[in-house]
Amino acid sequence: MRVAFAGTPEFARIALAAIADAGFVVPLVLTQPDRPAGRGLKLQASPVKRLAQALRIAVAQPQGLRLDGRFAGDARAARDALAAARPDLLVVAAYGLILPRWVLELPRLGCLNIHASLLPRWRGAAPIQRAIEAGDASTGVTIMQMDEGLDTGDMLLAQALPIAADDTAATLHDRLAALGARLVVQALRDAAAGTLRRTPQPPEGVTYARKIDRREARVDWRADAAQIARRVRAFDPAPGLHFELDGESVKLWRAAPRDDLPPAPAGTVLVAGGGRLVVACGRGALELVELQRPGGRRVGAAAFLQSRAPTPGSRLPPAGGD
User: Fold this and answer.
1) Measured between alpha carbons, how far is 18 from 48 in angstroms, rounded to an integer?
2) Which residues touch 203 (CB under 8 Å, ≥6 apart)?
3) pLDDT exceeding 90 applies to what percent of the chain?
4) CB 144 within 8 A of CB 123
């Protein structure tokens, strides 16, 4: 089995490492172009590219894959590289580019995708975050045979994974990445043995995990406290949920809903002392457990209140400054 690979972030790197460790020949890796990052905004290679270079695997970094698009030259070069690699399969994990028909049809056995949800729930760009935000009790990984639709291909393997009450997008990501790596190796072994079976996705239960918009990262105190608490976990580590306090944007990293306080208008500071900071929401109240001022580090409420204590009874802007 010759297995080409397309992926970019850490989720994909873990899968590539597992495929290589399992002994499959990886003749080519496709990954996103190097991007500026860090304080100096120096170009940095993706986690997948760094691993591919360490394993001495050829790397292609097209800016686009459409042969008639803006980056047609890149696409033609990628097509030539992929054709020369002669892959039996292409494994795709969080690559970041839509695959046109020519990519889907080039490998002898097509393209497999590692998707971080139990399809057809949470098709789309942000399945991990949306599952936490929605309060799902479990999620999982689906290995899917790719087609031209948005995560609509036949299912090959799937396994569920519980979502813990304190899971953030970061902690759930790591467990799903490990599960995805194990499942894709199993799928490749089944494909080599000719025992891989395809199951069409059911038409019921389709939901879409739209891409995270930074405008969503502002606390809206008019929402349900439990919903805000879930969004705090879903948006950790990025983009992070924030609210406005005295003209300053404060990140909120941990929070817990409370129902033991009398109701008050949304955004009212109910408690700001004794190591506790509690704010009224549209329904219930939210205890702010871990916060971060601009340029500072994450601290507990007690430490935060030592330098920035709002007045009980004061009102915070309803939607982070809106």
Assistant:
1) 12
2) 120
3) 93
4) no
* Domains of the chain, first to last: 3-209 (3.40.50.170), 214-307 (3.10.25.10)
Structure tokens at 86: 């002669």
Name the pTM for this structure.
0.94
Q: How far is 307 from 71, CA to CA, in rounded Å?
A: 51
The rounded distance, in Å, linking the Cα atoms of 284 and 224 is 7
Model pLDDT, residue 37: 82
Stretch 220-230: mean pLDDT: 96
Phi, psi dihedral angles at 174 (to 5 degrees): -65, -40
Query: Apex CA 200: angle with CA 199 and CA 201, to 5°?
Result: 115
236 burial via Cβ count (<10 Å: 0-12, 13-18, 19+): buried
Q: Do 161 and 140 form a contact (C-beta atoms < 8 A)?
A: yes
Q: Does a cis peptide bond (omega within 30 degrees of 0) precede residue 237?
A: yes
Q: What is the pLDDT of residue 319?
A: 61
**Residues belonging to the chain:** 322
Q: Confidence class of residue 320 from pLDDT cuts 50, 70 and 90?
A: very low
Tokens representing residue 230 in the block = 């879930």
Average pLDDT, the chain: 95
Return the SS3 of 104: helix
